[in-house]
Design goal:
Length: 455
């Protein structure tokens, strides 16, 4: 097999050998095999397709469009051919010359070369025909035309008509500003709460720059308490007996309330002192172990347990009819009782009127109580944070601590603390505690090796 292949290769290399697939010259070294390509794939369409004839046809079409303005095959015969009759066209009378007599000036050759020789019209410049906001203006014009057809005048046009009518009648909406040296001008109030309108009133009206109305809720104070509360008369350095005793009684009531609250907490947290004894512990351990404690179910004479039947007997047709008649009769009785009760209400008009009047009085009383409660809550501190407001202790001196003169009076309290508590009480700031700071790190103690050796 290998010898036959070698013999064919040697015979093909001889100069006079002509193969079946080779050319006439017998030289098949320059002949390349055609590459087999799958033309079903789109990426191979333009790469391995011969489109030279298509390109030549398209170039010819473009040349005809440039030179003649279209395809020659589509033009009529009158454009392509003419009949030669041999007669010369009559010369037109010469136009009156306004310039010098002589040779008519012709364009230069360079200008003729630069002139376009194509019969195709130049494309239109789209940007030259575009207008900014053309679509929006067209919609606005259509809307204005639609409103005008209905008889509706736009606001801008309406205001312009009003101004024209006012100007025609002699009323000038725009007043001239008053000069500063005019004695009839109004003076500026420095202490007035309202903001002055120094601008032109017509300008303020058209530009809508008038002051916004302040909500009434912003004018309300968070608390009805005064900023500085006056101390009771008993807190003076030289009070009278009755005022001082009233202040002492008030302080005593505050202390009694605190003591009651502490006692209540102590009662709630108190431990039951009744300790378990050995006998009670033994009973708890033995409970349920002794026989005879549990009651046995009742049994009938035959020894079977007595209890509810597992299945219910089916009712007969007679029983169902009796139950239905009983239900109908009960409904009739209820309707009759309802009708009789409605009739009896006619004779109870006085009592009903009295009950309604009593109910209205009760409602009014509750409304008054609710309103009084709301007024009282205005002077009470609200819960603004996680902490509740704690009222400061009353600054009161006992009878034996009263000073005989102002010079020997000992000062009590702090003005800063008093102002801070007042802000909390008036709901301006939330109650808060003093921040707890940690100063430095904890000291770490270690035992040295030498100290352990001593022990």
């Amino acid at each position: 097999m290998a010898a036959a292949r070698k013999h064919k290769r040697v015979a093909a290399s001889q100069p006079g050998f002509l193969s079946i697939k080779s050319g006439n010259d017998g030289n098949n070294s320059n002949i390349k095999l055609r590459k087999r390509v799958n033309k079903n794939k789109k990426k191979n369409w333009g790469k391995y397709s011969d489109i030279q004839d298509v390109e030549e046809f398209l170039d010819d079409v473009r040349l005809q469009e440039r030179t003649t303005g279209g395809l020659i095959s589509e033009k009529p015969d009158d454009v392509l051919f003419f009949v030669d009759t041999g007669e010369k066209a009559k010369a037109k009378p010469p136009a009156p010359q306004t310039t010098k007599k002589g040779k008519r000036s012709r364009p230069l050759r360079i200008d003729l070369i630069l002139q376009p020789d194509s019969h195709i019209e130049a494309p239109k410049n789209i940007l030259a025909f575009q207008q900014p906001n053309a679509k929006k203006e067209r919609r606005m014009a259509e809307k204005a035309a639609k409103l005008a057809s209905k008889g509706v005048v736009p606001r801008r046009e309406r205001l312009l008509q009003l101004r024209r009518a006012a100007w025609a009648s002699g009323i000038h909406l725009k007043e001239k500003p008053i000069a500063n040296n005019n004695p009839d001008r109004s003076f500026y109030d420095l202490w007035s709460t309202e903001a002055p309108e120094t601008a032109d009133p017509y300008y303020l009206e058209q530009t809508k720059r008038k002051l916004i109305k302040r909500p009434e809720k912003l004018n309300e104070k968070p608390s009805a308490l005064p900023a500085i509360e006056v101390v009771a008369p008993g807190g003076s350095y030289n009070p009278d007996l009755f005022s001082h005793q009233d202040l002492l009684r008030e302080a005593h009531e505050v202390e009694v309330k605190k003591k009651k609250a502490e006692e209540k907490i102590a009662r709630q947290l108190a431990v039951n002192e009744e300790l378990a004894t050995e006998e009670s512990i033994f009973k708890e351990q033995v409970e349920g172990l002794i026989e005879g404690d549990d009651e046995e179910p009742e049994e009938d004479a035959e020894g079977t347990a007595v209890g509810p039947t597992a299945t219910q007997e089916k009712k007969t047709e007679k029983q169902r009819k009796k139950e239905k008649a009983r239900r109908i009769l009960e409904l009739q009785r209820k309707t009759e009782r309802r009708v009789v009760a409605r009739r009896q209400q006619l004779y109870q008009l006085k009592s009903i009127r009295a009950a309604l009047k009593k109910q209205e009085e009760r409602t009014k009383m509750r409304q008054a109580q609710r309103k009084a409660k709301q007024e009282a809550q205005k002077s009470m501190p609200r819960r603004l944070g996680k902490l509740k407001f704690e009222a400061p202790d009353l600054e009161v001196q006992l009878s034996d601590e009263l000073a005989s003169s102002l010079r020997s009076l000992k000062p009590e309290g702090s003005i800063i603390k008093d102002r801070f508590k007042s802000l909390q009480k008036r709901n301006l700031i939330e109650p808060r505690d003093r921040a707890k700071f940690k100063w430095g790190n904890k000291v770490k103690y270690t035992e040295k090796r030498a100290f352990k050796e001593i022990q």
